[in-house]
Amino acid sequence: MESPPHTPAGSPAFLPASELRDLIRNKELSALDVTEAVLDHLETVNPRLNAVVAVRTEGALADALLPEERGPLHGIPFTVKDANESAQLPTAFGSLPFAGYRPGFDSEVVARIRRAGGILVGSTNMPEFGLRITTDNRAFPPTRNPWKTEHGPTGSSGGAAAAVAAGIGPLALAADGAGSVRAPASACGIVGLKPTRGRTPWAPASQEQWAGYVVNGPMARTVGDAALMLDAMAGPVVGEPYGLPQPSGSFLAAGVRPPRRLRVAYTCTPPHGTVVPEVREVFEQAVSDFGELDVEMVEASPDLGGLLDPLLTVIAANVAAMVRGVPPEQLAELESTTLDIALRGERLGAVDYCAAVATAQRRAADVIRFWTRYDVLLSPTLTVLPPPLGTAVEGTGFEERWREYADWLAFTYPFNITGQPAISLPAGRTAQNLPVGVQLVGAPGAEARLLGLAADFERARPWAHAWPRLG
User: Fold this and answer.
1) Which end of the chain is more exposed for a tag (fewer CB within 10 A), N or C?
2) 360 vs 393, residue with greater confidence
3) Are strands 262-266 and 295-299 parallel, antiparallel or unpaired?
4) Which residues does residue 215 pair with via DSSP β-bridges, in sequence order?
5) Does the pLDDT of residue 258 top 80, yes or no?
6) What is the mean pLDDT of the chain?
7) Residue 442, number of CB atoms within 10 A of its CB
């Protein structure tokens, strides 16, 4: 078993972004102090974790020396997932054929965080093209869970979650297509938010990400930090198919303002698969804790069935289209599981794809009606605990593997299809020191409501003081 959590003192690497922002504004710390502390800490702990796969040392230090305050994230270090393009880092998508690829530009969401003053320190590990729930690939060593290093952080944003949990920057940019922000946030004991579809941009990418199911989202140690980061990320880009109007107010302000009395439904019954006893125990305690807040708790759930088969069709077709862009001489460098998914997609017809999207849209409309009766749904985030490193999902084919992944993600992937906002919050750790998270899901566009309730839960059961014992 890993050493118990501890409360570190002295290093800015262990402070929330909101506290760092105030210390920098008050000139009690400089942006350079903070950036050097995070880079030093990265050098100490990353060899044990393999969370960060590329480091931007000189560029980060140069950004920290800029004298003018650039925005609400001025001087705050952050990382980006290996799928989010940045001008001064390689973007490999967790894939050996793309190792060393340099896009030469910042994606819009990365550019927004940097314009807000964020200091990009590195990129984080992921499975090839985000196609597994474990953060391992052929390009880089597997990522370890900071709380118990013989276990993984799940995925696909496992490197991002492990980095934040270990103090390698208080903020991380990640992406969520079936739970890829929320699952590793749960596994690493941090906050992970999947915003409403269209809340954050994918520009300048021209292709849809899994029929719009994939959304960029923030990861942080506190609810307030996630809201602060979302403020910098959110807003439309002209021409994007799902772009929402500019938010009318600050998401950070929503987190410090008590919400009105909410009607909260809760469930521990997934549409398929089984919730393991350790997760159920933590969840039941969380239900009790939410019941002590100023909310009405009702055991109820929408029908989340009928969404998995359309999701598998959409994934396979999108992967096939992606793999067509890999040069033929490099196809052999792709992982066999990726090629298997692509071959499944190549066998699909246009009618299959259109029917899957239509079925998903019809079922999504049915699910969203649940939020006309309830404000928020509370559930476990993952049905399982973070698996030991090297855990392989049974089954030789794409559908067999993904049906087991889907059992793990039974509470997360439906809300990628419906496009609703969902946030994972730390709820406790097991006797084996493995974190367990709970998920709040809101109506489309209701990030402010979720953040307000999440902040209430954090005030009642604060978690940011405890850290894994690393380095």
Assistant:
1) N
2) 360
3) parallel
4) 176
5) no
6) 94
7) 24
Secondary structure (3-state) at 175: strand
State pTM to two decimals.
0.97
Choice among 18, 81, 379, 424 that is catalytic: 81
Each residue's pLDDT tens digit, 318-329: 999 999 989 999
Place of tokens 């299809």: 417
The one catalytic residue among 18, 95, 180, 186: 180
Q: Rounded to 5 degrees, what are φ and ψ at 4?
A: -65, 160
Amino acid, res. 60: A
With tokens 């300048």, the residue in question is: 204
Closest CA to 379 of 329, 322, 422, 333: 422
- Per the CB < 8 A criterion, the answer to whether 441 and 422 are in contact is yes
Q: Measuring CA to CA, which residue among 187, 193, 139, 167 is closest to residue 330?
A: 139
What pLDDT, on a 0 to 100 scale, did the predictor assign at position 256? 73
The phi and psi torsions of 343 (rounded to 5 degrees) equal -65, -40
Using CA atoms, how far apart are residues 427 and 207, in angstroms rounded to an integer? 36
Q: Can you give the pLDDT at residue 6?
A: 61
- The first and second tokens of residue 465, run together, are 């003081």
- The H or E element containing residue 440 is strand 435-442
Cα–Cα distance for residue pair 243/31, rounded to 1 Å: 33
Q: What is the mean pLDDT of residues 399-428?
A: 97
At 369, the amino acid letter reads R
Torsion of CA 49, 55, 61, 67, to 10 degrees: -100
Pair of tokens at residue 297: 């708790």
* 3: confidence class by pLDDT, cuts 50, 70, 90: very low
Is residue 24 within 8 Å of residue 72, measured between CB atoms? Answer: no
Question: How far is Cα 44 from Cα 145, in angstroms, rounded to an integer?
Answer: 15
Residue 81: active-site member: yes
Catalytic-residue membership of 157: no
| Both structure tokens of 192 | 């992970």
Dihedral angle of Cα 176, 182, 184, 189, to the nearest 10 degrees? 150
- Whether the per-residue pLDDT at 259 is higher than 80: the answer is no
The pLDDT score that the predictor gives to residue 1 is 38
3-state secondary structure of 458: helix
Query: What residues contact residue 392 under an 8 Å CB cut-off, 6+ apart?
Result: none
For 430, other C-beta atoms within 10 Å of its C-beta total: 18
Distance CA 236, CA 218 (A): 17
Q: Which of 18, 107, 123, 156 is catalytic?
A: 156
How many Cα atoms occupy the beta-carbon half-sphere of 471 within 13 Å?
19
pLDDT digits (tens, 9 = 90+) for 425-471: 999 999 999 999 999 999 999 999 999 999 999 999 999 999 998 85
Is 180 one of the annotated active-site residues of the chain? yes
CA 221 from chain centre, in angstroms, equals 12
